[in-house]
Structures are given as structure tokens and as C-alpha cells.
Design goal:
It contains 39 helices and 28 strands. By secondary structure, it is an alpha/beta fold. Strands 21, 22, 23, 24, 25, 26, 27 and 28 form an 8-stranded mixed β-sheet that branches. It has a 5-stranded parallel β-sheet with strand order 3-11-10-5-7, sandwiched between helices. The protein is elongated, with a radius of gyration of 39 Å.
Length: 1072
């Protein structure tokens, strides 16, 4: 019985709707009452004194079309005269007596999710306030509007499937060799037959273009012969050929869809609207379905032609269509702004005053002006207070401006609202997919490092593989081996050798093995639809039950969005599911999912920062439009460059005219609402902030809307916008706040736990005690490994040469007689070099590293020549790589203390100790591969000579003098003097390659005793914790420790004097 009553009520409602009176607009813009006609829309002027969502809520809650459009119209007019809408003036009891707030047969079309959310909240609040049950309307954005109202006769392709259908046309052309794919490729700048990647790029671009054309009620194969395009094609001869190729492309694709029995979503909507108007056969195109919808309320500045046509069809079906506007001037019969009139709309100074505009040089300065504008706002009767997101909206047209504004707001103590919403690609799951795609596609070791650093992957490796430090393992391996491709077989040991080198290699191998196992099912090429399952399983293995995200609900929302995209991927028809690699499939998924925003709960307390289109829907009374430049407002070029702007205008496609008209309409709405609110005493304002150039210095033009003022005011406006005031110093609250932030340079590290010091470490202490502490304090463990390096640094190159010489030296020391055959020595050291390279460096070596290996070989050849001559003079290698360590292991020597009783352990490595067989004299040599080939006197003694005033030596390095201490501490002590300590220089040039000794010309044995005394003094300072920085900054800007001194940091002023240490032997291997 009740169901019969409902059906009768529905029938009566539809009948009354068809007979209703609509409010239309005549040519003068005046409101008139006319008999209902499908050609005229019912236009509702919103109350400009209210927030947009509130005014729209009032329209929805009026006497609805369920009673009759006539009654609704009369109530609207009466409410408008009373300064309100709908049931204004009704008592609480009267509202409760009306029963539920039933909007279940109403559809609301709004431009974006922000307004949709605000409207939903407003309706719920109203229902609560009136104690009425709410049956909510269907609130849709433009993308969902059409598909909800048409009934297709074929299965509809998803976005990815539609794109692959275009690619299938090209694939078939390539397969049969008919040349069509080449014609299409030339259209897109590809000279030859397109490969698979090029075909995918073309398909993606044509799909977007086809969607634009369909939304404009055209098909690609109709344009070339259409009356709308005829004159333009005649004037531009190249355009005709371009359109013919696209028309043939569209015909082939239509035949493919017919063959598969499927339809394109955008084309299906267009054809359904045409069929409903009787232009095509309904049996092939479906039609408009309005069941369950009695009323459509629209708030949308610039609908596409297909959406306008759909609204007309709905009116013909008896649906009450109401278009909400902020004003009735210059709107067409559908209720939307007339582009030809709005694109050149003027904004005189009584609407945008000069004082409302602030001009800055760059985005950072513009951000400070935003803060100044906020501080100048008259918010609240009790004086200034912190604005909240329901009071203030700031437009940021791009990420650069947004970041600058958020920084400035934070420094000023007025943070931006933590809008818990981000694109899918910026979520944890989205970034995981992106890194997985790079890992599979690029295959570089860098992509592996990025992959294991992802929080989900790091947790998976720690949880399932018991590898808690995967990122560190990969970094250490990359820094030591310069591996290029992560799939290369790992080396057995990295440079440096020993158990540490093997640990680095095995640690990396464990990480790589786990990733190899994960990626196994993701290798090769498959039909694109076949990747859905293995991708889902791989992601499930990594993510598991981890529900963490950047904000509450992020993980759930992103998983839901990815599931939809994976489902769409799996549903691509097999007829055109072309084989692709997994990384290509992921790229498609990301492109599809990236259009969606994952939203969470928004923190209310803070300033709302969003884009221009959101500004047009802002409920906040105070609006600051930052970055108000041409190309932003109005927005720049529209759509694909294959279609020139004049053709777009003729076809009704997105064009510069449409964008300019839409943006002028939006700006007019902002100004209208601001003026109405301000005049009603509610408090409202709008300000403009214009930057003259980008942060990189590229010029920016102010929005043309700011220049459309009356002639008398134009000169002042031009001067305001374009005159340079770069020399004027303006006080900045943000700059004051930034100046208050103190960056502490060289922060002290209390105490000392250093138990050992190497013979080379004293050089660092002499340069700067604080730098010595950073490098040697075991609590800090600061390391400057560069995992992104593609070649060996000076130290690494020296270590490679040293390692080959060490292996040769051990063999030579064990031999009965010295080898004096240069060719034999060369063969031996080069063989050791090759073995080391094979052991420590993977096959995928960077070209720079390959060159360095050959340069090392050249140095070793020169070594062979010099060593041959030394052997002939009676010198034989006695020890190679003598290692003195604190906790000696087999093959090492226990290091002595300095001073002997309670000093620090003195550690180091002596590259070689030679014995002169005829005389029995020893010498200690340190291999040096520095390009400068400085002699030891220059590297150890300031100025390379004695000071004239005191005739004393000023030491800057104690390495060679302290070799004496080490050699004396051996079980069988070896005694050496100043003439027995030196370098074996292996320079790039043969002329500089030689053995150079420290003394005795300048340095005597007495000087060596003084050097030991200095070392004892420095040990005392180390033990007392005296690590005060020197006045001279000991590092250059590029040094890993440079930021500690403030070097290379912007905004910190002068970090100190000096250019840092010379790039000498401290960066080389050996001698430790």
C-alpha cells in the first residue's frame, strides 16, 4: 500500500515538474517568468552574503521539486525579497512537522571535492539542528556526472583499457606493415616506425585528445569535414592532413571496439546524449536515464558541451534543473557565463582597489606579503587573533609558492592548516609503487637504494628477513664498489679487504637476495591485464598488515584506490592487452590513480592554502590570492597543441577563451561575495599578491585582470605592478622571525672517549682539534661515504694502487732475493690489480671507474721501472703493510702507547720497510699517488723549511716522524733516522714519480725527537678533551663536515674565514 502511494507521489511530481514555470534570463539579463522549456534553465542567484556551501545548502533545503517547480520558484522569489532562502522565518516546530529532510531524489553537481565535503557537512548540521532525519542527495563532481545518467548498450572500457585500445590500433598496423603507424608517429614527432614505448606515449596522448573532443560533442573523424572547422582548415593547410590522420586513427579504433563489443566511456556519453535527442539510433548508443532523479542543482562555472547537452536532455525528461550563480549578468539560456563576454571582463578600481594589491620580487617575498596581509586583517571585534581555516583562505597556484607560504606562515606563528589530503602518488603506497617501478625498469643500484629506504620496504626486510639495516648495507656497498646495476652478482669483498670488506659484501648480498626473490614474479613481459595479480601479491608481501600512513586513513584510502586501479587493469580486454613490462604496468597504474586525492581529517586551526579553482569555492570570508599572474589567472594554454586555439574555440573545446571566461567569472564571484559580506557587517576581504619573477629569476607577468581598470587609473596600476622597488628595504616580520632562529655552528661535544690515535690523525688535530674530534670520536662515528659517486676519490684511487702493491710486496718480502726485472715486476703488480678489480668491483662499472683502473695500471708500470732500479742498488722489501693496532689480531702488531705509561695507543700502517742488503740499513716508505707528488718535507713542515726567527721546524704532519715510534716498538725493533723516512711517489707523470726522503738536508734526528715530544703534548690535550675549534675553518663547502661550520648553508651569513685545507695527502690511502 505504502509503495503504491510512493509511486503515485512520484508520478504526480514528474507531471507537475513538466508543467512548472522556470526562471530564465532574457537578452537584457533581467529575470522573467516563462513557460517551462527544455531550452531554458532555471537560474538561482545565491545569497552572496553567505558562504557558498551555506547558500547552496539553503537552495537544496527549500520546498523542493518533489512538490512542484512552481512552488519552489515562488518560495525562492519570496525568500530573495526577504533577504534569505527557503524556510527562513519558520519556527523549529514547523520545520520538525515537515518530516524528514528528503533529498534522496536530488543530484548536486559541484566542481570539486572540497565544496562537496563542505556541503555534506552543512546538510548534516542543518538536519541535526532541526532534529530531522536526512536523506542525503547524490553530490557528484563533473567526472561522475555523465556516467550516472546514461545507460550504455555495451560494456564500458575503463581509462586504461581505453588507452590500450588506441595502442592496439598502432600495434596491428606495425604487425601488418601497412605504414599507418608511421604516419601517426610522424604526427607526433617520431621519425621512424614507433617502438612499443613510443606507441604507448602516442596512445596516451591521443586518448586524452579524443576525450576532450568527445566532451565537446564531436568525434575525431567528424572534425575535418565539419562546418565549424572548415574555414580554419582552409586557412591552415597542414591542419587538414593532421585531422585526416586522426580521423583514420579514430575509424580504425571504432572498428576495433565494434569487433570487441565494447565502448569508450566518453564517446558513449556523447552518443547517449545524441541518441536521446534523436540524432543517432538508440539501439547502438543507449540513452539518458533519469530514473530516481527529480531535481538537479548545478554550481559549475564552465561545463563541457556534453554536460550542457545532458542537462538539456534531463529537462526534456521532466527533471527540474537549477543552475546556481552569484549573479545573473551575461549568462546564457543554460545559466552559464557567456564566454565571449566574460573573457574580456573589466575589474575597475571600485572592485579591486590599488591598496588590495601587494607586489613582491619573488615567491619568498610574496609569501612575506601574504603574512603581512593576514596580519592586517580586521578579524573579530576583540582585536587581532590567530586566523583559523574557516576565516581565511590563501591561494597558492603551484608547489613553489605553497611551500614558501607555508614556511612564512610557520615562522610568523600562524601555521597552515594541516590539510590531511595528498595525491595518491604522494602516499606511502604510491611512493612504494613508484620506487618499485624504477627498481624494475631502471635497474640501477641507486634505484635499489631508494627502494630499501622506503619505510614499508625497510620494515618488511627487518620483519621478514631479519635485515634491520638494509639501507646502510646498500649505501656502504655502493660507496665501495660503484656498482651500476643492482642485479649484478655481488663481489666477495669490497675495497679495504679483511673481515670488514667481506661483511659489507655479504650484507649487501643478503639485501639483494631478498629483493631478487620479491621481484622474481615481476620480471619479463606479459599482457598488461596479467600484472594485476602478481603486483597485488608483491605489495601484500611488503606491506602486510601495516596500516600506518602520514595521517589517519591514508593507508586505507590509498589501498582502496589502488584496488580500483588494479581491478581496472585486470579487466582490460585480452584483445588489446598488449605485452608490457611490469614497470610499464605500474606507470599506467600510477597515472590512473594519481588523479585521485586521498583525504583524511583536516585540522581546523590554521590557514587554508589551496589552488585557484578551490579559491572560487572557498567559504572563508577573507581571501588572499597569491601568485596572481598570467598563466595562473587566467590559466595558460589549453589541451594538446595538435589542435590550435582557434580550432578549439570553434569546436567548443577547452581553449584560452573558455579558461579566461571561466576565471573571470570565478574572480567576479569572489569579489561579489566579498562585497556583499562586507556591506552586511560580517567582515570580509580579498587581497592580491603578485610576484615579479620566479625563484629562479624568470619574469612573471601580473594577471591581465589586474590591468582591466578604468582609463584614468591605468597609469597608477601599471606603475604599481611593474615599477621596480628592489632597492627599498621593507621590514619583514618573517625575516625578523628567521633571524631569531640560531644555527649553532660547531656545537661542543663534551668529554673524550678516545683511546687510540693514528699516526695520520695528528695532522687533523693540528689543523683543528674540533675536526679531529668529529673524525675520531667513536661516539660520533661520522662518515662521509658518497654512495652516489661514479668514480674513486683520491683516497679510493690510492687504496686501489696500495692494495696491488701490498700483494706484490708480500710476495717480494718472502722471496730470497729482490726482483730487478722491470717486466716481471710489471706483470706481477698488474696481475694483482686485475684480481683486486675482479674481487671488489662488479661488472656494471661506471666509465669513469674503468678509466681510473687503466690510470692505476699506468702508475704501476712506472713503479716497476723505479723498483727495478732500487733492487739493482741493493734494496729489498723486508716488510709489507705493517699494521699496528690497539687490539692486535693474527698478522698485526700490538700498537705502543704514547707516552709509554698512560698515553693513547698509537696506531698506523707502514706501507713497506726496505732493507739495504750491502749496508744492513732500514728505511720506511709510504706510497703516495697524489697528482701533486709533493715531497715529504713540504707535506710535513710549514713552508718546507725552518723558521728564520727561531731556526726551528713548525710541524703540520707527524706521520713519518711517528713511524720511528712504531718501528721501535716491534718485537725486533727497527731503528731509522730522518734520512730513512720518505715517500714512494707514483704521480701521473714519470718526471714526478720518485722516492723522496724527509731528511737529512733540513730535518735532523733532533727534529724527529721534537716531533715526538709534540705528539706527546697533543695526546695530553686529547686526553683532557681540549677540542676547541681553530679560528680558521678547516673544510671547504663541499666537505661532508662543512655544514657543521655553516659552510654552504643559505641565510647563515659568513661561516668563517679561510678556504680550508689543501687537497693534499690526507685524502689518500695508506699510512694508517
Amino acid at each position: 500500500m505504502e509503495r503504491a502511494k510512493d509511486q503515485a507521489k512520484d508520478q504526480a511530481t514528474k507531471q507537475s515538474t513538466k508543467q512548472a514555470t522556470e526562471r530564465s534570463i532574457d537578452g537584457s539579463g533581467e529575470s522573467t517568468s516563462t513557460q517551462a522549456s527544455p531550452a531554458a534553465a532555471r537560474v538561482r542567484v545565491l545569497d552572496a552574503r553567505r558562504a557558498i556551501s551555506d547558500a547552496l545548502c539553503e537552495v537544496l533545503c527549500e520546498v523542493s521539486c518533489e512538490a512542484s517547480c512552481v512552488a519552489s520558484c515562488e518560495a525562492s522569489c519570496e525568500a530573495g525579497r526577504n533577504g534569505g532562502f527557503g524556510a527562513a522565518g519558520s519556527s523549529q516546530d514547523e520545520r520538525a512537522d515537515r518530516g524528514p529532510l528528503d533529498l534522496s531524489r536530488t543530484m548536486v553537481l559541484v566542481p570539486g571535492g572540497r565544496l562537496a565535503s563542505a556541503l555534506s557537512r552543512g546538510l548534516l548540521a542543518r538536519a541535526r539542528a532541526e532534529s530531522r532525519p536526512l536523506f542525503a542527495p547524490m553530490i557528484v563532481t563533473p567526472k561522475r556526472f555523465g556516467p550516472n545518467l546514461v545507460e550504455p548498450v555495451r560494456p564500458i572500457l575503463g581509462e586504461m583499457a581505453a588507452m590500450f585500445s588506441w595502442r592496439e590500433v598502432l600495434d596491428r598496423s606495425v604487425a601488418v606493415g601497412d605504414g599507418f603507424a608511421v604516419r601517426v608517429a610522424s604526427l607526433f614527432g617520431v621519425a621512424a616506425e614507433p617502438d612499443a614505448a613510443a606507441r604507448m606515449r602516442i596512445a596516451r596522448r591521443v586518448h586524452r585528445l579524443s576525450s576532450e573532443v568527445a566532451a565537446s560533442m564531436w568525434a575525431l573523424d567528424e572534425i575535418v569535414s565539419s562546418a565549424a572547422a572548415r574555414e580554419i582548415v582552409r586557412a591552415r593547410s597542414e591542419l587538414a592532413g593532421r585531422l585526416e590522420v586522426l580521423a583514420e586513427f579514430a575509424r580504425r579504433r571504432a572498428a576495433l571496439l565494434d569487433e570487441c563489443g565494447v565502448a569508450d566511456r566518453d564517446e558513449s556519453l556523447r552518443e547517449a546524449v545524441r541518441a536521446d535527442a534523436g540524432r543517432v539510433e538508440r539501439r547502438t548508443a543507449g540513452g539518458v536515464v533519469a530514473d530516481g532523479i527529480d531535481r538537479v542543482v548545478v554550481l559549475f562555472a564552465d561545463p563541457d558541451p556534453v554536460q550542457r547537452a545532458l542537462l538539456r536532455r534531463l529537462r526534456e525528461h521532466g527533471v527540474c534543473v537549477e543552475v546556481c550563480v552569484h549573479g545573473a549578468d551575461d549568462v546564457d539560456e543554460d545559466g552559464f557565463p557567456i564566454a565571449a563576454r566574460w573573457e574580456s571582463r573589466a575589474f575597475p578600481t571600485d572592485r579591486i582597489a590599488h591598496a588590495a594589491i601587494r607586489v613582491a620580487d619573488r615567491p619568498n617575498g610574496a609569501a612575506e606579503d601574504v603574512v603581512a596581509a593576514i596580519r592586517a586583517l580586521p578579524v573579530g571585534p576583540d582585536g587581532p587573533r590567530r586566523p583559523t581555516s574557516d576565516e581565511l583562505f590563501v591561494m597558492a597556484p603551484d608547489d613553489e609558492t605553497r611551500r614558501a607560504i607555508e614556511r612564512a606562515l610557520a615562522l610568523a606563528g600562524t601555521p597552515a592548516a594541516s590539510g590531511e589530503a595528498r595525491p595518491f602518488g604522494a602516499t606511502r603506497l604510491g611512493t612504494l609503487l613508484a620506487r618499485l617501478a624504477e627498481l624494475l625498469g631502471e635497474g640501477s643500484a641507486e634505484s635499489l637504494a631508494a627502494f630499501v629506504r622506503h619505510d614499508d620496504v625497510a620494515c618488511w626486510l627487518a620483519r621478514s628477513k631479519e635485515i634491520p639495516d638494509a639501507a646502510d648495507r646498500v649505501s656502504a656497498y655502493r660507496a665501495k664498489t660503484f656498482v651500476g646495476a643492482w642485479r649484478d652478482e655481488p663481489v666477495g669483498s669490497v675495497e679495504g679487504g679483511g673481515w670488514r670488506g667481506e661483511a659489507v659484501a655479504s650484507g649487501y648480498a643478503a639485501v639483494r637476495g631478498a629483493v631478487i626473490a620479491l621481484c622474481g614474479p615481476l620480471s619479463g613481459s606479459k599482457p598488461v591485464s596479467a600484472w594485476a595479480r602478481p603486483l597485488r601479491e608483491a605489495l601484500r608481501a611488503v606491506v602486510g598488515d601495516d596500516s600506518r600512513g602520514s595521517f589517519a586513513g591514508e593507508r586505507v584510502g590509498s589501498v582502496r584506490q589502488l584496488d580500483r586501479a588494479l581491478a581496472e587493469l585486470a579487466e582490460i580486454p585480452k584483445e588489446f592487452a598488449a605485452p608490457v613490462s611490469c614497470d610499464e604496468a605500474i606507470a599506467l597504474l600510477l597515472e590512473q590513480a594519481a588523479r585521485q586525492e586521498i583525504r583524511g581529517t583536516v585540522e581546523v586551526d590554521g590557514v587554508t592554502v589551496a589552488g585557484w579553482l578551490d579559491a572560487g569555492m572557498a567559504d572563508e570570508p577573507h581571501i588572499v590570492l597569491s601568485g596572481f599572474a598570467d598563466g595562473v589567472v587566467p590559466s595558460g594554454g589549453a589541451g594538446d597543441s595538435l589542435f590550435p586555439d582557434e580550432l578549439r574555440i570553434a569546436l567548443g573545446m577547452p581553449s584560452s577563451r573558455r579558461h579566461a571566461a571561466r576565471d573571470a567569472w570565478i574572480l567576479d564571484g569572489i569579489l561579489t561575495r566579498t562585497a556583499a559580506r562586507a556591506s552586511s557587517g560580517r567582515g570580509a576581504s580579498v587581497g592580491f599578491v603578485v610576484a615579479r619573477q620566479t625563484e629562479e629569476g624568470d619574469p612573471l607577468k601580473p594577471s591581465r585582470f589586474l590591468l582591466r581598470v578604468e582609463e584614468a587609473a591605468l597609469a597608477e596600476r601599471v606603475t604599481q605592478l611593474f615599477a621596480s622597488d628592489a632597492g627599498d628595504e621593507r621590514p619583514s616580520a618573517v625575516a625578523d622571525a628567521a633571524a631569531a632562529l640560531i644555527f649553532v655552528k660547531t656545537p661542543p661535544v663534551s668529554g673524550t672517549v678516545i683511546e687510540a690515535v693514528s699516526v695520520t690523525g695528528f695532522k687533523s688535530f693540528i689543523e683543528c682539534p674540533y675536526l679531529f674530534q668529529l673524525r675520531h670520536d667513536p661516539r660520533l662515528r661520522l662518515d662521509d661515504l658518497d654512495e652516489r659517486a661514479v668514480e674513486l676519490d683520491a683516497r679510493g684511487f690510492g687504496n686501489l694502487v696500495h692494495a696491488a702493491l701490498e700483494q706484490w710486496g708480500r710476495e717480494e718480502a718472502a722471496a730470497a732475493n729482490p726482483t730487478d726485472d722491470a717486466e716481471a715486476i710489471e706483470r706481477s703488480v698488474c696481475a694483482h690489480l686485475d684480481a683486486l678489480v675482479a674481487m671488489h668491483f662488479p661488472k656494471s662499472r661506471a666509465p669513469a671507474l674503468r678509466i681510473q683502473i687503466e690510470l692505476a695500471r699506468r702508475r704501476l708500470r712506472r713503479f716497476a721501472e723505479i723498483q727495478s732500479e732500487e733492487a739493482k742498488q741493493g734494496w729489498k722489501v723486508h716488510h709489507a703493510e705493517l699494521a699496528f693496532t690497539k687490539d692486535a689480531k693474527p698478522g698485526e702488531i700490538q700498537s705502543p702507547r704514547l707516552p709509554a705509561n698512560d698515553g693513547l695507543f698509537l696506531t698506523g700502517r707502514i706501507d713497506r720497510v726496505d732493507l739495504h742488503l750491502p749496508s744492513g740499513r732500514f728505511r720506511a716508505l709510504d706510497y703516495k699517488s697524489s697528482s701533486s707528488a709533493d715531497p715529504p718535507l713540504k707535506t710535513h713542515v710549514h713552508g718546507g723549511k725552518r723558521k728564520k726567527s727561531t731556526n726551528a721546524i713548525e710541524w703540520k704532519d707527524l706521520q713519518l716522524p711517528l713511524y720511528r715510534v712504531l718501528l721501535r716498538s716491534m718485537p725486533k725493533p727497527i731503528m731509522v733516522g730522518s734520512a730513512d723516512l720518505g715517500y714512494f711517489n707514483l704521480a701521473p707523470s714519470a718526471e714526478k714519480s720518485e722516492i723522496a726522503m724527509l731528511g737529512p738536508a733540513v730535518v735532523t734526528d733532533a727534529d724527529l725527537d721534537a716531533a715526538e715530544a709534540l705528539a706527546v703534548e697533543l695526546v695530553g690535550r686529547i686526553q683532557r678533551g681540549e677540542f676547541k675549534p681553530n679560528d680558521r675553518v678547516p673544510v671547504r663547502d663541499g666537505d661532508a663536515f662543512a655544514p657543521i661550520w655553516g659552510r654552504g648553508q643559505r641565510g647563515l651569513g659568513d661561516a668563517g674565514g679561510g678556504d680550508g685545507p689543501s687537497a693534499g695527502d690526507a685524502s689518500e690511502g695508506g699510512g694508517e
